[in-house]
Queue: 4 jobs
Job 1
Amino acid sequence: MKRERIVIIGGDAAGMSAAGQVRKRRPHAEILVYERSPHTSYSACGIPYYVAGLVDNEQKLIVRTPKEFMQKQNIQARISHEVLSVDFHNRAISVLNHQTGEIFTDTYDQLLFATGTQPILPPIPDLEGKGVFALSVLEDGLNLQRYIEEKGPRNVVVVGGGYIGLEMAEAFCIRQMNVCLVDRSYQVMNTFDMDMADLIAEAIRYVGTTLYLGETMKGVEREKGNIKAVITDQRTIPADLVVLGLGVRPNSKLAKEAGLPLGYKDSIRVDEFLQTEEEGVWAAGDCSQTWHRVANRPFWVPLGSVANKTGRVAGMNMGGERERFPGVVETAVSKHCDLEVARTGLSEKELEDLGMRYETVTIRSHVRAGYYPEPGTINVKMIAEVPGGRILGAQIVGTHGSAKRIDVVAAALSAGMTARELVNLDLGYAPPFSLPWDPIQIAARQFL
């Protein structure tokens, strides 16, 4: 009897989560994973902390090696293998082995696209030379670390003020480098509303990072091949290292060329079971579309947490189940030195685009009891629907202990709770952790 052949394109969070779930349900299937980079199952989210020196060994960022996948789960993970094309009619793929240069054909019974993202790069010449880095896979972080150790740069320019930019700027602050952050927007963190983003910008400046907002990168200057400066539309900034944190887009080119329809922001269109419109072909992780449970519309978000969840569901269904992925509420957390930031649900900007009626409240409180040592501060902005009071979103900016409070709001959003219901939740209280009224409940009370 012919063994079922499962092929997965992409060996990080979604791909390997799917492979593990398939193996549980298909013990005799042949599972092959093709990964274009030299690593499988790694934490790309940990790259800034590795660069900062908080993670002292890159091996700590690798969850499981190809050898371990083979020994423990009989999953063949082939690194440095890039899938070049997919032929749905013949259920075949063309693969390039980067180690040998060989191109060969493989076949599949079921196929999963877990191709992740690719960094957004500005249309500027001379970016591919020494000293300019865009971070996407673990190897990018390792190359950046090697460059820092070999060249010892002191002046770094981070281009882009989103999650990647903030976390990389923090890494360079920890290394006591001179850091400038440039963003063409007039605020950092565009997924936050301006009033909360202003608090983030204030904290970034406080730790010594220079912010140039409302400026667009136009080019770079080099001397004998080495980076010397970043040129914006307003100034020239000295730099011996440049990191591009302009965000990412779905790595969906391979799927599109194969004939799969794309959806929101060019992510691969899938149904609630993570199946594409091609029979036996699935997509999960950062390359695939998802559903926004608050906005009630297609969505795309590149997060490791979502990639793991969608990979799990895709793998279960490839193994014969009918598991639905309900979607996301757009929850994200980050930090910059002593500042923690978090958001979930919809922002004012998103609600205005949707034409929804809403009201907002913003409160400032303590993270823990005011009489407890280092009570900290927390700013909470909450948004509720009008009429009815259904919670639509929240944003948090504060000191240690602030960010993970967003999870309570995320749960409330998933349950469709109102402000009154959120106020009445039985949350934990003790002076080292909170106030008798948790800050998110203090915010919710303002609607009543």
Note: The chain has three domains: 5-42+61-118+249-318, 121-246, 339-445.
Job 2
Amino acid sequence: MTIKKPLVVKQPEIGGLIRNLRLLTGLTQEQFAAYLGVTYTTINRWENGRSKPSPMAMEKIEQKLQDLGKQGQDLKQKYFGS
């Protein structure tokens, strides 16, 4: 069994990741919030760098990146270097 290391993003960069991922998927803040099980205001705070996602939300974000294939991998590389 392989233990998966969680993705860690610095606070100033998380907003860019969330915004780029959301735009890449064509989702509004409200739609992306529903997908992650959070509120619109939470997405807004993440995108504006006022807070960061919980570990559980980061798992869903990572899954969405994986679901996007090459585009998701490119975005992951940009923010995580992996």
Note: Residues 9 and 80 are 7 Å apart (CA to CA).
Job 3
Amino acid sequence: MLDTIFALATAQGKAGVSVIRISGPKSHAALGMMASVPELRKASVRKLYWDDVLLDEALVIAFGEGASFTGEESVELHVHGSRATINAILNVLIAIPGLRPAEAGEFTRRALENGMLDLTQVEGLADLIDAETEAQRIQSLRVLSGAIGKKVDAWRQKIIRAGALLEATIDFADEDIPVDVMPEVKDLLSELIVDFEAEISGVKMAEQIREGFEVAIVGRPNVGKSTLLNALSGRKAALTSEIAGTTRDVIEVRMDIDGLAVTFLDTAGIRETGDQLEAMGVNLAIERANAADLRVFLTENGDRIDEVEFFDEDITALGKLDSFSGDVEFQADHRISGLTGEGIGALLSNISSILQQRISGAGLLTRERHRVAIQNGLIALRLASDEVFNVVPTVELAAEELRSASQHLELLLGEVGVETLLGEIFSSFCIGK
């Protein structure tokens, strides 16, 4: 018989209310040893006893098989959140034969195994737990809702329809088929290819919403990069000094910019130097700046940093505006002072606008695994299309490629061949989820 598992589902530590979850065939029986089992899916207040000792007065909800998060018979105990109360109840549960503590992600894994979630929804749940910004929350909820699965089901129906039409031409090859099915098959394949290509093009931006953007602050030594970082973060994240070359390493500050996760990088001042340690910092600065999603080039005199590639959306800014008097002879996108905060709001607004524009093309698929599955499916669809559009269509080969495309969609949803992925995916979950 399947084990019945239990765990604290809320965070460790003192709280007003904590939730203990129990799932498996003995969950109702375990509750019955402490209190009467309430009507299913109706919250009731119960006094929990063990050996005539009152453990707590809790809000109790019982779920039947097929009607819970895991798909199993389960119970939730909403108890007072003191460490003593939680430990007392967990100690009682571990003493009941057939019950054991849950492993990390085991509740969610059972939901997957029982068909309550597909693999993309599991990943969406993991992302929702980790969400730091509004954009991440919205994206992860969309994935958790099953939006990918619904889209895949629509694709599957088209693949099944095209495959059935092709199979009909194979099965009745020696007979006259009253309708030429090839135009419909060609239309279905063309639609599928366009859909797959569109989803693949949106994966990178969806991934960036999930993982966040990097914005590098780049410039010569002593132009105010560290002061700007401190102003952006609202704290002294980096040491500042009038001595050029103070910053040797890349200092990172993660922020929420209008719902997007953005990590600002304060890099070493870029210059030729005989100091070996500073030279290492300069090389690292160049490497990280070139790899960043956006660069803010900070300058005092309008000079360019040839070592770092400049892209159209990159921003130029006059730093240390507080130290200037009179007109400035060169053009810059922004004039700012990290010391006084002047111009910082406009700079942040510009950065937000650029990044928001980029994510407008984000698709449903949020991970590299998703992209690979759809990319392989697209390859199969293109091969099928090539066979169908031949002067003499090779129907059998086209039908086989359609079966291959369907298998890649099954891989995407975790229906076949994903056992090696599950350990890695569930390792990111906490106990109780």
Note: The first strand starts at residue 4 and ends at 8.
Job 4
Amino acid sequence: MKVRDFMITNVFTVKPSNTIKELLLILKTNRIGGVPVVDDKGHLVGIVTDGDVLRYLTPKPIGIAGIVYLIEDGELEDVVREKLDTPVKEIMTKRNLLFVSPDDDFESTMRLLSKHRFKKLPVVNGAGRVIGVISRGDIINNITNNILIS
């Protein structure tokens, strides 16, 4: 079996210029944890996940003792609101991007997801365009439907 047999083809993506706020709306609305970042032609240029957003929005320790002091209750919310206007390109993973091709086999994709502990990988065609996503859940469903139930 090949990746094309069980990948998701209805892929949600963002552009590097999209804001974190726009990204969060896509993640929440579609109940997903990350998306490929593509250029205007649909070529993969990065990946951004809810974990990337959380790491960016989390206050960094400051001061000699490494303690964050919040003077007022609203201060943290103000900082988060301000950071929501940051472009996705500032927080996305852009180096050493891993992806699979629609012709890759099931076993190698399973190994790749397992080895790197990724939740999902983009599926990229020969022209470098994102045409799908394959997730751990897709693999589990495939095993359940085609091996366990057979």
Note: Residues 79 and 112 are 37 Å apart (CA to CA).
